[in-house]
Specification:
The complex is a heterodimer of chains A (143) and B (427). Chain A has a single domain, classed as Alpha-Beta Complex (Sufe protein. Chain: A), CATH 3.90.1010.10. In chain A, 38% of the residues lie in helices and 19% in strands. The longest helix of chain B has 39 residues. Chain B contains twelve helices and 14 strands. Chain B is globular, with a radius of gyration of 23 Å. In chain B, the strands form four sheets. Chain B has a seven-stranded mixed beta sheet, sandwiched between helices. A three-stranded antiparallel beta sheet of chain B has the order 11-12-14. Chain B is 37% helix and 14% strand. Chain B is of the alpha/beta class and 427 residues long. The chains are: A alpha+beta (143), B alpha/beta (427). The interface between A and B is medium-sized, with 33 and 31 residues.
Chain lengths: 143, 427
C-alpha cells in the first residue's frame, strides 16, 4: 500500500532526533489520534540550516516527517513556509488517501516551528492555514 | 540505551532472553524468514484438506440436488461433512447449516431470530467487544425498530453473566455473546450466559469463529442455541462456514431461493469448500488436546518474554481465560502500524489494534472497551500462534521485537529519557 519512497523514508528515516537549543520547535497531533509530530529547526540568517524530527505514528507519519525535514533544509523561511502537504506527499511518490493527513501534519509542524522562531524573535507570526485536522473530512479522531 | 541507529534489514539489536546462546548485541541478518503469527486473521489450508477438496472441483462436480449417481456422490460428501461439523461441536447433523462463512452465519443468526420473533420493537443483548459481523448487524437492526443492549466488559474483556441477567426484558428476542474474542483472545463464560438465556426462554447465539477447532466446544453442555463457525480459521478453505441451529429454535430464512439446506439457506452448495470444512474441523478437533497444550506454552513464553524484555508493555486480555494461540501486548510510546512494517521487513506477520491499519481513525473498539487509553490501544500488537508455529519462531520474535520497539521509541516524542528502564544488560 505504500510507495517505495515511503518505505525508504520509513525504514531509513533522515534527520531523526532533536536539536540542542533549537531556533524553533513545532509540535502537532495528539497521542489519542495515534500520531504526534515534532519538528526542530536551527535557523541562521533567515535560512534553515538544520531540521530534525521526532514522530509517534504510523509508517506514513514517520516517512512524511523525514521527507518534510529533507525538503526544508537549506531553504529560507519564506521558501520553507511554502512547502505544502501536497509537496511532501508528491516527494514521497504519493500516500494512500487515508494517510494524506500525515503529510498535512508535516506542513503544520513546519509552520508551527517557523512561527515559534518568529515569535521568539519578536516578529509577528505568519498566518497559519487553519486546516488542522486529524484526519478525514467525515470524522475527526474524536478528541 | 541499547538501540543505536541502524538501517532496517541490515542490523537489528538482539535482546531476546530466550536466546541463551546469543547475548544482547547487534545481530546481522543472515536471511529473511517467514514467520506467520496472524492465525486469527486466517490460516493456510492444510495439505490433507486440499487433497480432500480437489476431486470435487473436477471429477465429482455433480450438483447435490440432482438425481443421478454423479450428484449423489456430491450429496454424500456434503452430508459426511455435515456429520463432521456436528460431531465437532456436540450437535446432530440436522442442526448444521452450511453458509459462506462466519459473517453470514452471524448475520443469519441475529437477523433471523430478530425477524422470526414477531415482536415489534424486539430487544437484543450483545457485548461491546463482538466482531463487526455482529455489531454492525445489531446496529442495522437498531435502525429497523429493534433495540440493542451492548454489555460492557471488565478489564480483561469478560462479560459478566449477571449483567446479561439484568439486561433481560420481556421484549428480549436474542442474546448473542462471542465464545472467544478475536483480538484479545479472552474466552467468555458462555455456559453461564447460556444458562441465563435458557432460564428466560431466550435463544442464545455465540460467535465461535475463533474457538471451534482450537478449544473444546459443546453446544449442549454450554447451553448454546446458535453457533457461528468459519472454515478458514482452522486450516480449512475461505468462503465456507456453518451455522448451528438447535432443533426447535425459531429463526427466519436469510437467503431465499432453491430448496437447499432444508429450505433454510438457498443456493447450490459449495461442495469442495464444504468437504474441506468437514475435513479441517475433523482434524483440528482431534488435535485440540495436543495442539492447544503445545501452543499455549509457546504463547505464554512469548508473552512472558515480551513483557520482561520490553519496558512499558502490558498484556491485553485475560491472563488465563484466553485462546491458546493469542498474545496481545501493548507497547507504550509507539504506534502499531510502524511495528508491523518493521516486523514485516524481517519476515514476521502480525496484526495491530491501531487505527492506522483499520482504515478508520479510531483504534480497536475491543481495546477501548477493556479500558485501554487510545494511545496504548494504538501501540498494541496481536500475535496469533497455531500448531504450525515453532519454538524457533517464538525465539525469533523475542530476539527482534525489543530492538524494533526501542528503535521506534528513540524516534517517538512521547518517550522521555526519565521513563527509560535499564534493561539492556539484562540477559
Amino acid at each position: 500500500m505504500y510507495s517505495e519512497k515511503v518505505m525508504d523514508h520509513f525504514s531509513n528515516p533522515r534527520n531523526v532526533g532533536e536539536i540542542d537549543a533549537p531556533s524553533g520547535v513545532g509540535e502537532v497531533g495528539n497521542p489519542v489520534c495515534g500520531d504526534i509530530m515534532k519538528i526542530f529547526l536551527k535557523i541562521e540568517d533567515n535560512r534553515i540550516v538544520d531540521a530534525k524530527f521526532k514522530t509517534f505514528g504510523c509508517g506514513a507519519a514517520i516517512a512524511s516527517s523525514s521527507m518534510a525535514t529533507e525538503l526544508i533544509r537549506g531553504k529560507t523561511l519564506e521558501e520553507a513556509w511554502e512547502v505544502s502537504n501536497k509537496a511532501v506527499a508528491e516527494a514521497l511518490e504519493g500516500l494512500p488517501p487515508v494517510k494524506m493527513h500525515c503529510s498535512v501534519l508535516a506542513e503544520e509542524a513546519i509552520h508551527k516551528a517557523i512561527n515559534d522562531y518568529r515569535v521568539q524573535q519578536g516578529l509577528e507570526p505568519w498566518e497559519e492555514k487553519n486546516h488542522h485536522t486529524h484526519g478525514h473530512e467525515e470524522e475527526s479522531c474524536g478528541v | 540505551m541499547c538501540g543505536a541507529e541502524a538501517g532496517m534489514g541490515i542490523a537489528i539489536p538482539a535482546s531476546g532472553q530466550d536466546m541463551m546462546d546469543k547475548p544482547a548485541r547487534w545481530e546481522v541478518m543472515q536471511e529473511k524468514r517467514t514467520i506467520y503469527m496472524d492465525n486469527a486473521a486466517t490460516t493456510p489450508v492444510h495439505p490433507e484438506v486440499l487433497e480432500a477438496m480437489l476431486p470435487y472441483f473436477t471429477e465429482r462436480y455433480g450438483n447435490p440436488s440432482s438425481v443421478y449417481s454423479l450428484a449423489r456422490e456430491s450429496r454424500k460428501a456434503v452430508e459426511e461433512a455435515r456429520e463432521k461439523v456436528a460431531k465437532a461441536i456436540g450437535a446432530t447433523p440436522g442442526e448444521i447449516f452450511f453458509t459462506s462463512g462466519g459473517t453470514e452465519s452471524d448475520n443469519w443468526a441475529i437477523k433471523g431470530c430478530a425477524w422470526a420473533s414477531g415482536k415489534k420493537g424486539g430487544h437484543i443483548i450483545t457485548s461491546s467487544i463482538e466482531h463487526h459481523a455482529v455489531l454492525h448487524t445489531c446496529q442495522y437492526l437498531e435502525k429497523n425498530g429493534f433495540s440493542v443492549t451492548y454489555l460492557p466488559v471488565d478489564e480483561y474483556g469478560l462479560v459478566n453473566p449477571a449483567d446479561v441477567e439484568a439486561a433481560v426484558t420481556d421484549r428480549t428476542v436474542l442474546i448473542s455473546v462471542m465464545y472467544a474474542n478475536n483480538e484479545i483472545g479472552t474466552m467468555e463464560p458462555v455456559r453461564e450466559i447460556g444458562a441465563v438465556a435458557r432460564d428466560h426462554g431466550i435463544p442464545f447465539h455465540t460467535d465461535a469463529v475463533q474457538a471451534v477447532g482450537h478449544v473444546p466446544v459443546d453446544v449442549n453442555q454450554e447451553n448454546i442455541d446458535l453457533l457461528s463457525l468459519s472454515g478458514h480459521k482452522f486450516n480449512g478453505p475461505k468462503g465456507v462456514g456453518a451455522l448451528y441451529i438447535r432443533k426447535g429454535t425459531r429463526i427466519g430464512t436469510y437467503e431465499h431461493g432453491g430448496g437447499q439446506e432444508k429450505r433454510r439457506r438457498a443456493g447450490t452448495e459449495n461442495v469442495p469448500a464444504i468437504v474441506g470444512l468437514g475435513k479441517a474441523v475433523e482434524s483440528a478437533t482431534a488435535e485440540i488436546p495436543e495442539v492447544s497444550a503445545r501452543v499455549s506454552r509457546m504463547r505464554d513464553r512469548l508473552i512472558r518474554g515480551l513483557l520482561s524484555t520490553i519496558p512499558h508493555s502490558r498484556l491485553n486480555g485475560h491472563p488465563e481465560k484466553r485462546l491458546p494461540g493469542n498474545a496481545n501486548v501493548s507497547f507504550e510510546f509507539v504506534e502499531g502500524e510502524s511495528m508491523l512494517l518493521l516486523l514485516d521487513s524481517i519476515g514476521v506477520s502480525a496484526s495491530t489494534g491501531s487505527a492506522c491499519t483499520s482504515g478508520s481513525l479510531e483504534p480497536s473498539h475491543v481495546l477501548l472497551a477493556i479500558g485501554l487509553p487510545h494511545e496504548k490501544a494504538h501501540g498494541s500488537l496481536r500475535f496469533t500462534l497455531s500448531g504450525d508455529t515453532t519454538g524457533g519462531d517464538v525465539d525469533y520474535v523475542l530476539l527482534h521485537l525489543p530492538g524494533i520497539v526501542d528503535r521506534l521509541r528513540q524516534m517517538s516524542p512521547l518517550y522521555k529519557p526519565d521513563e527509560k528502564e535499564v534493561k539492556c544488560n539484562v540477559q
